Amino acid sequence: MQRDFKSLLDNTAYPALKRPRRRARWAGLAAGLTLFAAAGLLFTDTDADADANRGTADSALLENNLSGDARITLPLTLPGGITHEAIEATFAAESAASTEPEIDWQVETVRSGDSLARIFSRLRISPQQLDRLMRTGKDTAILKRIMPGQTLKFDVQDGELQQLVVEIDRLNTLHIQREGEDFGTRTATRELETRITNASGKISSSLFLAGMDAGLSDNLVMELAGIFGWDVDFALDIREGDHFTLLYEEKYLDGEKLRDGDILAAEFSNRGKTYRALRYTDASGRSDYYTPDGKSMRKAFIRTPVDFARISSRFGKRYHPTLKKRKNHHGVDYAAPRGTPIKAAGDGKIVHLGRKGGYGKTIIIQHGGKYSTLYAHMSNYNRKLRRGARVKQGQTIGYVGSTGRSTGPHLHYEFRVNGVHRNPLTVKLPTAAPIQAKYRADFLAKTRVLVSQLDMLTSTTVAANEHVE
Ligand SMILES: [Zn+2]
Q1: Is the pLDDT confidence value at 15 over 70?
Q2: How far is the CA of 18 from the centre of ligand 1 (A)?
Q3: SS3 label, residue 362
Q4: How many angstroms separate the alpha carbon of residue 413 from the centre of ligand 1?
């Protein structure tokens, strides 16, 4: 074992720093973007804009206009459901109230320096009523914090407050109603409208750039990487030409997008190998991603034990990681800026924490009886960790450095099965439990439409690519 380690400690020259092979290959590949434009044919037609490969679909129907003539429309049942009814019900309730002929709503916009007492006095409502209103319960506490510009709707009859409607924020409205001598309250929450969108991208320099070109937020790109991070090492494995397609939700209010929702289905093609993931929520409310045949996407180990966003992002091409192929080198080196977080590849127990010869500051984690992982050259450990401590998968255990025999900041990572070094990039990893048998039929039924959507999106992408090339 000692000899094993020694052989690993040979001069760690980092081609990433000295000879940026991948960068050279990636240079000037903007041409790859024209493929996006071609993909744009799928949804728009002539507009060869980088955004053109995105299609926005109605929430109840997913429509894609294929090459401008064949239109395929598929009904889509989604976990979580679409809630037009709820939104309409809220509107109906309000408009029913506001169209009652005998109600003469007085709309007050809160002015600077206003208090509720002042507004009540403007409307000639007695302070006693305000008093009673404020004693109604915790819901009315919001009235103490009214802000200039906020709108209050009053229904006052013969000096008696009958109803008060307060817009708490864009989503929530407080309704106060007279109930005899007292007041009752209820809060109406508008539900966001969910729209399903799709996007595709092809990687020419980095996943983040490809995501940006496809109109995805960095968060969504991270989520995409998280879904496939069990199979694909996003720091070392990504190649020019890798491509992805995803269907995801967008949350809207009054026709305006507020945020992204969940990724519902995605495909990632890495070095010619294609992975697919489908989101499924079981009857107990648990959501996770599965392969189309119901296997879990999760594995006992993540492929990338460093925060890959820090090394393959648009910020530092200098730090492209490289895979060391030299003989006797039993690990993988991730060149990364000093201080980049290092993550535990899997749940386990720390069996070594400390300096280890040429390895410098090193942590070894034992994962059950069979597997162990080693992380070397750290600048620092996570201060909370000690030998014997249990760690969770993805937990930060330390930071990239250059301690020990090392010529530049990098993580040296080793993966062992039954004490034997294995290539962490290719070793077969144990998977999490597949979809439960009792949910299998439901899973297949609910994900069928997602699969056909992916089929359609990806097959037409290929067709468009072929047309261009
Ligand atoms: Zn190494």
Answers
A1: no
A2: 15
A3: strand
A4: 7
Considering the domain boundaries, does residue 18 fall inside one?
no
pLDDT average, residue stretch 132-157: 87
Ligand 1 center from residue 24 Cα (angstroms): 23
pTM above 0.70, yes or no: no
The CB density around residue 401, as the number of other CB atoms within 10 Å, is 22
Amino acid, res. 124: R
Using the mean position of ligand 1's atoms as its centre, give its distance from the Cα of residue 8 in Å: 7
Q: Domain limits at 183?
A: 84-189
Q: Helical H runs in 195-298?
A: 207-213, 218-228
pLDDT in tens, 403-434: 999 888 999 999 999 989 888 878 888 888 89
Query: Same domain, yes or no, for 180 and 121?
Result: yes
158 with 305, same domain: the answer is no
Tell me the CA–centroid distance for residue 14 and ligand 1, in Å. Answer: 9
The number of folded domains in the chain is 3
CA of 330 to the centre of ligand 1 (A): 7
What is the whole-number distance in angstroms between the Cα of residue 359 and the centre of ligand 1?
A: 9
Rounded to whole angstroms, the Cα distance separating 440 from 349 reads: 34
CB-based contacts of 395, cutoff 8 Å, min separation 6: 343, 344, 382
Q: Do both 315 and 246 map to the same domain?
A: no
